Amino acid sequence: MRSKIGFMQGRLVKSEKKNSIQYFPEKNWIKELKIAHKIGFNIMEWTINAENLDKNPLYNGNLKRLLKASDKYKIKIPSITLDYFMQEPFFKKKKFKNKSKIITNLKRIIINGNKIGIKYFIFPLVDNSSLKSLTEEKLVINEIKKLSKLLNKNSEILFEIDYPPKKLLRFIKKFKSRKIGINYDTGNSAGLGYDFNQEIKYMKFIKNIHIKDRVLKGNSIRLGEGNWDYKNFFKLIRGNYKGNFILQTARSKNNKHIEEINLNRNFILNEYK
């Protein structure tokens, strides 16, 4: 189990963007890999933002440096969360004029990701990129179908989406593709008040899991202190899920990032024995 627990990039170092819980650490991403190796992690999920897009190796193409660092510190990078997509939702009216450029950038990220063995490209449809109409949904489905043609035989596109269970299942089935799946986020579902007894119905589509806790209709909080029904969650997924658990937990309030991530990892190990 321990080898299946990874963390979201940026969680082991101080955020380089004020008041940002998740941001690509352009100055410290290699340092973070070193820290991760030192404290016993072997999996990290990459992240990519709009603000410092050109500084990110998965965009600027400096893949040799990335591979050299990940090999040196023995950290696998099986997945990437495209916060860029959430920040630049081409299907929204305010971003539609930039659609061509955004799609071109997404293609570039997927092509580079394929080169270093990224298995899951995670597209968040939450918060700023939450789908608000059938028109937006159709636009996303059409463009993602096109982007999925760039995937290699081992890679997939996963959606992290705030749809309730039945609506989410209908959405995923519209793709009619084994290359499209779900990234399940425990905190998002907890914050929205969803029932995992209903969400388990789309379990076969879940390929990656983000672990965090949230209060109902509120912010992220330390694991076990929010609305996440973790005992029922671990009971229901046992034997039904073989993927990774990525710690996307609340950041330390006093910059004790290593202590915080270890506390959260131990929480998972204690609850999912």
How would you characterize the overall build of this protein?
The chain is of the alpha/beta class and 273 residues long. It has a single domain, classed as Divalent-metal-dependent TIM barrel enzymes (TIM Barrel). It has helices at residues 29-38, 57-60, 63-72, 83-87, 99-115, 134-147, 165-173, 186-192, 196-199, 230-237, 257-271, and strands at 5-8, 43-47, 76-81, 120-125, 156-161, 180-185, 206-211, 213-214, 220-221, 245-247. The strands form two sheets. Strands 1-2-3-4-5-6-7-10 form an eight-stranded parallel beta barrel. α7 links the parallel β5 (156-161) and β6. 38% of the residues are buried.
Order of helices and strands: EHEHHEHHEHEHEHHEEEHEH
The radius of gyration computed from the alpha-carbon positions, rounded to a whole number of angstroms, is: 18 Å
**Distance between the terminal alpha carbons, to the nearest Å?**
8 Å
Query: How many domains make up the coordinates?
Result: 1
Please write the CATH class name: Alpha Beta
Element layout with pairings:
Layout: E1 5-8, H1 29-38, E2 43-47, H2 57-60, H3 63-72, E3 76-81, H4 83-87, H5 99-115, E4 120-125, H6 134-147, E5 156-161, H7 165-173, E6 180-185, H8 186-192, H9 196-199, E7 206-211, E8 213-214, E9 220-221, H10 230-237, E10 245-247, H11 257-271
Parallel strand pairs: 1-2, 1-10, 2-3, 3-4, 4-5, 5-6, 6-7, 7-10
Antiparallel strand pairs: 8-9
